[in-house]
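quick one before i forget lol
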Amino acid sequence: MDLDVCEIFHSLQGESTYAGLPCTFVRLSGCNLSCSWCDTAYANETRITMSIPAIEEKINSIDCSLVEITGGEPLLQANTHSLIEHLIDDGRQVLIETNGTQSIRDLPAASVKIMDVKCPSSNESGTTLWENLDFIDHKDEIKFVVGSKEDYEYARSVIQDRLAHIRAGKIHISPVHGQIPMETIARWMLKDRLAARLSFQYHKMIWGPDKKGV
């Protein structure tokens, strides 16, 4: 069983409630969206075909118990589920970051799903597969990438109307790096008593916005 891989690297988690923890990232190739603020467009251009054992061998050489499968959009590849299952069977904690357009229903129960809900400035806000919210459990997370007041208001509406069953600590408002002041969003959230967490892209704050492999 093979997968198209863009890169495998070791870094600190930059987002989610796992931010700051050492993590091995498996970035799979290909995406079905073209978000205006995308910072990983190179995942559409770089692809190395690797077997699941070869991917596991690389992960084992890094020796880190936390692994994130990301992209691109990792759920476009049928064998992604098998990779997750193998890693969980090896005793690793697996995070799967998805853009929310592909079904998460059959993902391994032990995996942690981190699902984007696209806001208007992404130009992809009509792509969310809303039925996925039925398969988000207590350990899973939702992320809104916010680049404008319109984005924030959209996220607020979704949180209030659709996400009452998800704990505030698992819902992330993540500013587009360099596009909107973090203080501005913080003030909006406090004013609205919004049940969500303000999250920053720590990797961009540490290494800068353009560095790959971090």
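fyi The chain has a mean pLDDT of 94.
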